[in-house]
Amino acid sequence: MEFLTEFLGSLSTWGVLLSIGAYGLGMYLQRRSRQQWLNPLLLSSILIIVLLSALRVPYPNFKSSAAPVSYLLLPATVSLAIPLYEQWELLKKNTAAILIGCCCGVVVSLGSIAAMAWILRMERVHSATLLPKSVTTAIGMDVASTLGGMAPLAAAAIILTGIAGNLLAEWVLKVFKIEEPIARGIAIGTSSHAIGTAKALEIGEVEGAMSGLAIAVAGVMTAVFAPVVATLLP
What we know:
The chain has helices spanning about 1-10, 15-35, 40-55, 60-65, 65-70, 75-80, 80-85, 90-95, 95-120, 125-130, 135-145, 150-175, 180-205, 205-230. The protein has 14 helices and no strands. By secondary structure, the chain is mainly alpha-helical. The chain folds into two domains: about 1-70, no CATH class; about 80-230, no CATH class.
């Protein structure tokens, strides 16, 4: 195992190749099976965890090798402004409704964690970690760290929230009969950030644009409201 660790250490991009390969395999399995619950991000995460555990490769080694993939997170998030620009007129006509929708989503997200913290008597460090679960990792990790939470655990919670949103978005919209494209997009983006937005883009152009907008608006609102809610935690 030590030889394998040293060998991988000599290949500076093995983490990038493993990440791309695992995600590609996840996409292949989803397309062949046609099962939406076989989310490529979820499958690739499980595969990487299993491989690293089986081969006893330290996570810091993988993290440093896969760093270029992480660097693409912010540019990928910024690129969501393209569909938003294409729906600019729609945005101007519904600005108030969009802001109110994002605000309601953020309040519900933060409030649910605060309520869960009181009911389950969670330690403050854990509840502070979960507060920014519905915003993108670029914002959520910093918010969690500032509030005294654990940034790595916050990242895991954010990713799981996004995957859940991606898997359940269409089902929730159908059950609650949400048919307005703007409302659909705001709901998905506010609750499940960029991973959910990928599903919103599949549903429709308007949904994708509004979901991309919700990522930024909800992120700012969470950064502002989270410290206030944190004072109410047990």
